[in-house]
Specification:
By secondary structure, this protein is an alpha+beta fold. The protein is 62% helix and 14% strand.
Length: 73
């Protein structure tokens, strides 16, 4: 039981580190948030941004990563 909790905490820590690195580097990735299908409405006094395509792409990448992790175990 203790070994399982230890592995889970290490895995969660590694995932958080990777997520932090991705978020830290994301402003320098010019394609994220500007894909075709991302809705952006800017008017005086109003700014609406709905990143539909970016969310779908990130979901696919995370799904593939989780699938690979499940096959690795």
């Amino acid at each position: 039981m203790v070994e399982f909790v230890g592995r889970t905490l290490i895995s969660a820590g590694l995932i958080l580190v990777v997520l932090g690195l991705v978020l830290y580097a994301s402003p320098s990735v010019p394609i994220l948030g500007k894909l075709p299908g991302d809705i952006r409405i800017e008017r005086p006094g109003l700014r609406i941004y709905v990143p539909i395509t970016t969310c779908i792409l990130m979901s696919l990448v995370l799904s593939v990563a989780m699938w690979l992790l499940s096959k690795w175990r």
